[in-house]
Structure formats: structure tokens, C-alpha cells
Amino acid sequence: MTKDPHHWQLPGGSLLLDRPRVMGIVNLTPDSFSDGGELAGVDDALERARAMVEAGADLLDVGGESTRPGADAVPVDEEIARIVPFVRRAVRMFPNVPLSVDTRKAPVAEAALEAGARIVNDVSGLAFDPAMAPLVAARGAGVVVMHMRGTPADMARRAHYRDVVAEVRDELDQRLARARDAGVAPDAVVADPGLGFAKTAAQSLTLLRHLDALSDLGVPLLVGPSRKSFLGTVLGEPPHRRGAGTVAACVLAYLRGARIVRVHDVEPVVHALAVAHAVETADPHDVVAPPLLATDGRSPS
Ligand code: HH2
Fold this sequence. Notes:
Elements: E1 7-10, E2 13-16, E3 21-27, H1 42-54, E4 59-63, H2 76-93, E5 99-102, H3 106-114, E6 119-122, H4 132-139, E7 142-146, H5 164-181, E8 189-192, H6 201-209, E9 221-223, H7 229-235, H8 243-255, E10 258-263, H9 266-281
Helix pairs in contact: 1-2, 2-3, 3-4, 6-7, 8-9
The structure holds 6-hydroxymethylpterin-diphosphate (HH2).
């Protein structure tokens, strides 16, 4: 689609993607796989969001329905009631932080956009609700088109690929075409390989390893490794102990071309990506060597 993967066109202005960007996750769900039920209400969620913004989150992604396998479906009215009060207050508190709504349902997306959200993060890649792509186009919203097969209820059974990288790439390409055909602006679209969605742990690791093969989709890439079970498979640790693994996955994703990562624990990822970006882009002639020893004789920190 676009030939310039260095910005993301959103209502109210573009987000520059000249450095890695971090999207903080706000789950207003009782049953999300790693943080379900942690946020009792809007005030709690806003406090969590404030901490993320202070830690350097560039974007916030709010969701009202868990996508973990076997999660309960949430009726549209209930999803709207979970999300909209948060969105209304968050856009006033953080006017410079674009807000994204994580939903597969056009009426939920519409209510969130009406309340001030600027991005629709659709884990179904615009496939679940035929009204979603036209809505995104009509509102000029940004959109994350994620790869998944089936629905969260049956996706685990669909994790069969001959070549996971090529097939995810081709299926994402088809979904990007759906966005284009509906009139979504090319620069408003970001693609996501959907780690853990209709993928085994080995397939998620393979996708991360070969993420650069998705760069010819021509849109910026977003990746969501945070606390996911493929990390648990490697580490043998439960979700809340996968923080360092998440940081490693984010840095590797960045080095292979991801422009945005979606995470629960913002600060360590912001720090890790700042260092990775400095290493990748710093002109060695600009770097002033620090003294080997501070003048008081202590080792410099
Ligand atoms: N992963 C989850 C949810 N939404 N959106 C995008 N674009 N990419 C992802 O990888 C992604 C996503 C699952 O994580 P989480 O929100 O923490 O869990 P749950 O769906 O159980 O609320």
C-alpha cells in the first residue's frame, strides 16, 4: 500500500514512526489472560494509563473483550459500557496520546471513535464484522489489521501452515486489500502478524524471527508479544513472570522492522527500545566517550 512506512495517518495528525513506538495495553475485562480483572473501574484504568504515559507510552489500546482462547463473548452493549467512559476521560487527560480501541465489532468501534478514540485495533483483520472497514474509511481512523484465522474460540485448531511466514504474509495482504477496497487511506493502516492467534509457540517464534519478510506489505508493522504463551513455552514461567522475555521479543521485533509494539509493562520496553534505537542510529562520531574514572575516584555509573 503506502511506500512510506515512517508515519501513521490518524485523525488530528500523523504519528511519526521515525523511532520505535510503544502502545500500552489497558484491559477493561474481567478475564484477560494476564491481567483480567485487575482494573476495578474507570478510575483504576485511568491511573494505570497515566502511569503508562508517564513511562513513555506513545499510544494506549483499550479493550473490553478478551481474545484469549475460550473467553466469554461480550455483548455489544456491555463492551461499549466498559470502554466508552474510559475513552471519554482518557482523551481529555492525554490529548497528545492517540487512543486505540481493541474490538472486532463496528458498533463498539463507532462508539469509541465518537468518544475520541483515533485508532481501531481489529484482531480479526476486518474480517469479523463487514461494517468495520467502511466505518474506518468513513471516519478516517487509523487501523491495525491483525492476522488471525477463525475466531478466538476456534483459532487453536487452525494453526496449520506449510510455510507460516509466507501464508501469514499473503493472508495479511488480502486483508490489506479489503481495507483498500473499502476506501481506507493507505497511510492509515498498520499490519500485525498476530503472535499467538492461530499460531503455535513455534510458529510465533518463526514469525518473529522472519518478521522482516512482512516489510514488503508496504505498511508499518505492529507486534504484540507481551506476556504471551509462546514466551511461556520458552521460559516455563506464568504470564506475570514474562516481563524480561517480552522486552527481548520487542527488541528483536524492532531490529527486524517493527515500528510499534503493544505491551502491558511499558517502562522496561521504552528503555530497551531507546537503547536499541540509539545503537542502531547513533553516529559514532557524535558519541562523546565518558571518562574511565570519575574525578572522585569512583567508577562512573
Ligand atoms: N494481542 C491481544 C489482544 N489484542 N491486538 C493486536 N493488534 N496484536 C496483538 O498481538 C494482540 C491484540 C491479546 O493480549 P491481551 O490484550 O493482553 O489479552 P486478552 O485478549 O486476553 O485481553
